[in-house]
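can u pls check wat happens w/ protoporphyrin IX containing FE
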Amino acid sequence: MKWRNTDVSYGLTSKLFHWVLALLIIGLIAFGLYLDNAKIGIAELYLYGWHKALGLLAFSLIIPRVIWHFRTINPAPLGPDNWQAKLATQAHRILYFLMVLMPLSGWIASSASGFPMDFFGLFPIPAIAPVSERIEDLFFSIHGIAGTFLAVVVLLHIGGALQRHLIKRDGTLRRMWF
Ligand code: HEM
Ligand code: HEM
């Protein structure tokens, strides 16, 4: 299998980025919603540290993915250029935007809270914003709203992929698989 995309197919690089990040991001959404809704005690505070470290691990893959996306050919949607194809393309753009906004807003908000961060105890994560309650509140709000929006767009995206695979059977899911 080729590493690069062609104008009709995805190469190994895009496929690996897609599926590794799909797993990580779906996990991070579920993890984040759990943190926001569960009663987290002092004993479970380490879970925040795991979410932050996993979020930054995702970010370290999202940056090269975005660069790759803009430097490679991207196959056009299969089938006619109708409203569904247009919606899918817009959804991909929104997903890329939210993939950058989520880790960045989480990192800025967490930096502004003043709590020290580390990457699974291996090395410290630098703060990228000054300690400030105003910045913390603003960026956690952005993280929360963008997170909910991301969850909705991901569900729409998965629904579209399944509809094309099970009903239309047009090979869209197969060309993203290995
Ligand atoms: C792709 C990466 C990420 C995704 C998809 C993600 C997703 C989420 C979601 C969905 C929530 C729940 C938000 C809410 O309902 O208010 C959340 C909460 C949170 N996230 Fe992230 N996150 C990511 C990266 C990060 C990063 C890099 C950090 C910090 C360095 C971070 C720090 C936090 C914290 C501290 C919370 C809890 C906030 C609260 O309890 O209100 N996240 N995340
Ligand atoms: C079970 C979950 C998922 C399935 C079944 C799935 C399926 C697919 C399929 C079939 C394509 C190819 C579309 C085409 O050829 O026109 C695709 C592309 C894409 N998917 Fe997913 N996806 C999933 C999860 C995710 C998640 C969680 C994200 C990001 C938050 C994501 C972001 C993207 C993006 C940005 C593209 C455009 C291709 C690219 O430039 O990388 N997907 N997905």
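The longest helix spans residues 133-168.
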